[in-house]
Write a structure and sequence with these properties.
Blueprint: H1 2-24, E1 31-33, E2 52-55, E3 58-62, E4 65-69, E5 72-75, E6 81-83, E7 86-90, E8 93-97, E9 100-102
Antiparallel strand pairs: 1-8, 2-5, 3-4, 6-9, 7-8
Length: about 100
C-alpha cells in the first residue's frame, strides 16, 4: 500500500512538471499587418526599481488595428535580458515579434 502511494505521488509530480513545461514552450502566433505601425510613443521611464526591468511600450495588433500597450515593470530574471517587442517590414507587410526573456 505504501509503495502504491509513493508511485501515485511521484506520477502526479511528474505530470505537473510536464504541464509547466507545456506552458513555457507554447508556440507563438505570427501576426502580419498590411499597414505600417505608428511611431512609438514617447514614454517617461520611471525611476529604477530593485529586482525589476522596465519593458517599454509597443504597438500591438488586435481586431485589425493597432493599439498601444504601455510600458511596465517585469520581475528581473538573473542570467536573462529582455528582448523588446518589435515590428519588422517583410516585403509589403509588417510582421510582429513578441518581446520576452533571452538567455
Amino acid at each position: 500500500m505504501q509503495a502504491a502511494k509513493k508511485l501515485l505521488l511521484s506520477t502526479a509530480i511528474a505530470v505537473a512538471g510536464l504541464g509547466a513545461i507545456g506552458i513555457t514552450a507554447q508556440a507563438r502566433t505570427v501576426i502580419y499587418a498590411d499597414i505600417a505601425p505608428p511611431e512609438l510613443r514617447v514614454e517617461t521611464v520611471p525611476a529604477p526599481r530593485v529586482g525589476y526591468v522596465w519593458v517599454p511600450g509597443y504597438w500591438g495588433w488586435e481586431h485589425h488595428k493597432y493599439y498601444w500597450r504601455e510600458g511596465r515593470w517585469e520581475h528581473e530574471r538573473h542570467g536573462y535580458h529582455w528582448r523588446g517587442a518589435r515590428w519588422e517590414q517583410e516585403g509589403n507587410r509588417w510582421r510582429y515579434y513578441d518581446g520576452g526573456w533571452d538567455h
